Amino acid sequence: MEDLLAIKLRPKTLSDIIGQEHLVGEGKVINNLVKNKKLFSMILYGHPGTGKTSIATAIANDMNLHYRFLNAVINNKKDFDIVIEEAKLYNGLILIVDEIHRLNKDKQDILLPYLESGIITLIGMTTSNPYHAINPAIRSRCQLFEVKDLTTDDIIKGIDKAVKSGYLEGIKIDKKAKEYLANLSGSDLRYAYNLLEIAYYSSENKKIDCELLEKVSNKPNNFSDKNGDGYYNVISAFQKSIRGSDVNASLHYLARLIEADDLDIIVRRLSVIAYEDIGLANPSIGPRVDAAINSALRLGFPEARIPLSEIVIELALSPKSNSAEAAIDLALNDVRSGRISDVPSHLRNPSADYKYPHNYKNDYVRQQYLPDSLLGTKYYYPKDNKNEIILKEIMNKLDTM
After folding, report:
1. Do 237 and 279 fall within a single domain?
2. pLDDT per residue as tens digits for the range 170-197
């Protein structure tokens, strides 16, 4: 029974896709590619159950093109060779590859020449960050598209679709149970379909309510609340608790994310926190966060909870500063508003008038670096913490030299 309902309800065309309006909506990039009958290799990345496979197969169906589906881990070199021969026969073929981040060098070497020639159009799918996990040789030949988390409304729309489909004959489910199921599934529509199907066949009268869903669910409803935004509220509370230096609250929300088995969102959020909330108040925290993340990813749950707990405690109790974020945002505002002018002539390449700082005492010499129109502009304003007090002293000293 596993995944049966999800398979039956899998969209056949882009118009059937639930959510992902930023990609498949009217006038959006993938929709336009299909309409223009022009397809490029791409990688779709996002959380499980958000629609990556559905989008890939819908593209092939809408364009009426031959396609084959392989898994980078399960399928071997011979399977890839067979697809390439088939692509030659059809003079082109879409190859959909799941877990593209796990594609080893042998399989990459087989594919690359045919990606270059256009015989193979690759649609890769991954739950990992493609900027870190995908081999550059593959990544550079593909457009990257993020498949975003589905909203509660999206999940409810999918549940309504399942109810109306007729696959679960005579099913009855009220609004409250739909909301509960949507909250329970996070952003994973496949999980919602699976749980709906299990509940249907577990019921005596084909009626599904919250009590039944709670009994058949294999994970606690950590994220449901009256607004239906519990999952996102937990993620938000996690970062805000660390920012607010409440170590116990930080560990509580970490535990809820661990219980949801969502290692991806934990490590992404920790990376953000290290630079957005701790920043220059404790600049050594960045490498420490990276080390904890690498350990957690290598270990996986349940052992990953240990390095995650250590780094969350350290982040929560660390001094805080957002001065670096504020500084770059001020600089970006100037650039985006057109407040720019020519680079000073002595900074251009080459220039005989440039003064090389290392030729001077203390490796410093005063000269103009900002464009004329921005002279005197300040972006960085140090905060009153131990590390930035030192940076401020350095800045003041340079101003008097």
Report:
1. yes
2. 999 989 999 889 888 877 888 899 999 9
